[in-house]
UniProtKB/TrEMBL annotation:
Residues 1-31, 245-272 are annotated as: Disordered. SMART domains: DEXDc. Residues 48-215 form the Helicase ATP-binding domain. GO terms for cellular component: nucleus. The keyword ATP-binding applies. Residues 256-272 have a biased composition (Basic and acidic residues). This is Helicase ATP-binding domain-containing protein. GO terms for molecular function: ATP binding; helicase activity; hydrolase activity; RNA binding. It comes from the Eukaryota.
């Protein structure tokens, strides 16, 4: 580990790094029945084996199959997969997702948030010296690359929701691939997770990084809950409500011709 590289802690403010002791491994807690009932759990050994034997692993699975909650835990709890002095970071495009996932996983493991599982978003760090799993926004990891170009303090970087193709995620993938091809991140494991079946595209993008081992995506079939498509008319009928007649509209008006706060039958939903 680079002695001059700061740990994954921004210290004062969002963009500055401070020093923190490395995490200490704790005994892996027993996963709850809810976690073990998720489709991803059935692929546990297959997923751990794929990550262990490949530099880059691509995993696809339907929304709600348990990718974001279970796979980071698999990596943390697997023996000799990530060094004890390094952390596992799972990126999320949105700060709300980073917070709620960290809270859910910590609660399910019977731990305090900020102990073994924490999160990092702009201006807020919720983790300590024993934290091994950090949910962070993609922008935070990009800033981390600026201060620690080889990400020495991270043992496994899990990039979630890659199918959304937001600018931060695309830029992060570009920088990671370039660094790996140049041999600057030989210690790092990369896991790409997608909720769509375009995983082959990401596998092709990182094919040269894996070299002779190739890169075959792992697909997790099934989902926890059925997802139905509901359209505007269906929703209105289900709640027995009809929108107001369309008016003249104009500047400051909603699409039904009324004030923005009255567009939905006079209901004020508060905020944007």
């Amino acid at each position: 580990m680079n002695a001059n590289a700061a740990e994954f802690v921004p210290g004062q403010g969002a963009d500055k790094a401070g020093e923190a002791p490395g995490p200490r491994r704790q005994a892996a807690p027993q996963l709850s029945e809810a976690m073990r009932s998720m489709p991803t759990y059935a692929k546990k050994d297959w997923i751990i084996g794929g990550i262990r034997h490949n530099t880059v692993t691509v995993i696809s699975g339907d929304t709600g199959c348990g990718k974001s909650t279970l796979i980071p835990q698999f990596v943390c709890d697997a023996e000799n997969l990530v060094a004890d002095d390094k952390v596992v970071v799972c990126t999320q495009p949105r700060r709300v997702a980073a917070i709620t996932l960290a809270e859910y996983v910590a609660r399910d493991r019977g731990q305090e948030l900020g102990d073994e599982v924490g999160y990092q978003i702009r201006f807020i760090n919720k983790f300590g010296e024993n934290t091994r799993l950090i949910y962070a926004t993609t922008a935070i990891v990009l800033r981390r690359l600026h201060s620690e170009p080889t990400l020495d303090s991270i043992g496994c970087l899990i990039i979630d929701e890659v199918h959304e193709r937001d600018v931060y995620t695309d830029f992060l993938l570009l920088l990671i691939k370039e660094a790996m091809l140049n041999g600057r991140m030989s210690h790092l494991k990369i896991v790409l997770m997608s909720a769509t079946l375009n995983a082959e595209d990401f596998a092709s993008y990182f094919l040269k990084v894996n070299g002779s081992t190739g890169l075959k995506p792992i697909h997790v079939p099934g989902r926890m809950y059925e997802v139905d498509d509901w359209y505007w008319e269906d929703a209105c009928e289900a709640v027995n409500w009809c929108p107001p007649e369309k008016g003249g509209g104009g500047k400051g008006k909603g699409k039904f011709g009324g004030d923005r706060d009255r567009d939905f039958g006079g209901r004020d939903f508060g905020g944007k």
